[in-house]
Structure formats: structure tokens, C-alpha cells
Write a structure and sequence with these properties.
Strand content: 5-15%
Strand order of the largest sheet: 1-2-4-3
Structural class: alpha+beta
Distance between the termini: 10 Å
Helix content: 55-70%
Number of strands: 6
Number of domains: 3
Order of helices and strands: EEEHEEHHEHHHHHHH
Largest sheet: 4 strands, mixed
Length: 292
């Protein structure tokens, strides 16, 4: 199943008087780029978090946000009253000695080391296991989101490929006599010029054949048709595999053939169909950029 690189997953649990929340967001990226925002005491586990994420996500920009909150506000702050008094006594004396006002001395002391700590330095193993459980649940939801989005992408790809194929088939009626008309127009123009010059008819005929063959679009049609079939084959035969880059390469090849068709068309009707193909292909390329 094709996967989208855009996704979102969130999970919440309560354990041991705390609430645990993990959010995982993914966006387009050529490579895997993981950024984790973790509470202070959990940052030592960042490498393990990255390993867990990498086991499920192979490509895209990944943002992991983990929040841990105390359900009881009184437990959220570990306050050392003796340490606070010691700081306050010494700093107050220093302010008086310097003739300075105490100002926001209390707020300043609260920011000093070992006075107030809102996070634990060492996370108990059972709490870390809970965090991993919440992380995996969020990742499972993210994968489902990306899978559902991928199914929508695949449906859209198949529709766009069919539209291009239908437009390609519409070219055939306009091809009848197209090269011959170009050839006759050249002949008339050359004959007008040749009135004042001696012209080798055999050489002229050879040059006309060579030149008008360049207007043939048969090879471009065949190659474009093959690219369209190959695109669908990748969707059919590579379920569960990463094919986003491969689809991007195929769409680039399709673009080359469509552009060549347009440059060699020499027909307003064919040019109109080519514009339609380009419009459909542009929509495919926009979506391929979001496919894993």
C-alpha cells in the first residue's frame, strides 16, 4: 500500500499520578529527519525514541512531542525550603550591603539550582516503559493516518494516469495526413523559392523525407504509453514497499515524452490534448512529492 508522508498521531495515558501525552507529526522530506522535544528528565532516552520511530518510519520530517504532567499540582514542584532560606538570607544581606533594593529577589531565587525542580533527574523504569507504550500507540495512529492518505493518493494516481492515457488515444485521429500536410506545405514554399534557382528534385525529395520524419510522434506515443503502464505496475506489484522515488522518476520520464509531443505536434488539436496531459501530470508530480 502506498503511504503518504504527511501524517499525525496522538496518544494519552495516566500512570502513577502523571499524565503522558505523545504527539507525532510527519511532513514531506527527501530523507528521514527526526526532531524530538522531550521533558528534561527524559532526554537521556532520545536515542531509543529515535530507534523506535525509525523502525516504523523510513522517510519524511518527523516531529515528536512528549509531555509529562503531574495530576496533583502540589507534586509538580519539588521545593527545598532550607535551600531557599539560605539563598534569601545571603542575597538579602548582599543587597543591603550594596544599598540595592531586593526587587524581584524571590523570583530570582526560585530560578537558582536546587531550589525548585519541576522534573525528575532520573526516570523510574516503569515510567519510561509507560512512555514507550504511549509513543508506540501514537506511532500506530500515525501509520494508519499515512496509510489512509496513501490509499487516497493511489486512487488519484490511477485516475490521472487513465486521463493521460485517454488523451493520448485521442491524438490518433488528428495524426492522419498530418505529416503529409506538413510535407506539402514545405514543398510549396520550396517550389516558390526554387523558381529562381536550379533544384535537384531527387535531393529535394530526400531532404523533405528526412525533415518530415522529424515530425513523426509515433515513438513518443509508444514510450509514453509504456511509462503509463509501468507507473500502474509499480502500484500493483509493490504493495507495502517504498515506491515514492520510483514514481517520481517515472513521472519525470512521462514529462519528457509529453513535452516532445507538444514540440512536434504542429497541430492545434494535438497541442490542446498535450496541454491536458501536462495538467494531469502536474497534479501527479505534486502528489508524488508526498508519497513514500
Amino acid at each position: 500500500m502506498l503511504l503518504s508522508m504527511t501524517g499525525y498521531g496522538r496518544a494519552d495515558k495516566e500512570f502513577g499520578g502523571k499524565s503522558y501525552t505523545v504527539e507525532v507529526k510527519t511532513l514531506n522530506s527527501k530523507f528521514l529527519d527526526i526532531k524530538a522535544r522531550l521533558p528534561q528528565g527524559y532526554r537521556t532516552h532520545e536515542m531509543e525514541i529515535r530507534r523506535i520511530v525509525t523502525s516504523l518510519i523510513k522517510r519524511g520530517k518527523v516531529d515528536v512531542l512528549m509531555e509529562v504532567k503531574h495530576l496533583d499540582a502540589d507534586q509538580a514542584i519539588a521545593f527545598d525550603k532550607d535551600m531557599f532560606k539560605a539563598y534569601y538570607k545571603q542575597l538579602s544581606a548582599a543587597c543591603e550591603e550594596l544599598g540595592d533594593t531586593k526587587g524581584d529577589l524571590v523570583q530570582s531565587i526560585m530560578r537558582l539550582p536546587n531550589v525548585a525542580n519541576t522534573s525528575e533527574e532520573v526516570i523510574p523504569e516503569e515510567e519510561w516503559e509507560m512512555c514507550k507504550t504511549v509513543l508506540r500507540e501514537a506511532l500506530d495512529k500515525l501509520v494508519k493516518y499515512r496509510t489512509d492518505e496513501g490509499a487516497s493518493l493511489e486512487t488519484d494516481f490511477r485516475l490521472r494516469i487513465k486521463n493521460i492515457d485517454d488523451l493520448l488515444k485521442e491524438i490518433e485521429p488528428y495524426e492522419e495526413g498530418r505529416v503529409e500536410r506538413v510535407r506539402e506545405r514545405f514543398r510549396v514554399q520550396l517550389n516558390e523559392i526554387a523558381n529562381n534557382y536550379s533544384v535537384d528534385d531527387n535531393r529535394l525529395e530526400q531532404e523533405l523525407i528526412f525533415y518530415t520524419e522529424k515530425y513523426s510522434i509515433s515513438e513518443e506515443k509508444v514510450r509514453l504509453s509504456q511509462h503509463l503502464k509501468y507507473f500502474i505496475e509499480q502500484l500493483d506489484e509493490n504493495k507495502g514497499k517504498e515506491i515514492g522515488k520510483r514514481l517520481s522518476f517515472i513521472s519525470q520520464e512521462m514529462g519528457r515524452e509529453i513535452n516532445t509531443l507538444g514540440s512536434k505536434a504542429n497541430s492545434a488539436d494535438i497541442q490542446r490534448l498535450v496541454v491536458g496531459m501536462k495538467d494531469e501530470l502536474e497534479k501527479i508530480k505534486e502528489q508524488v512529492a508526498n508519497a513514500v
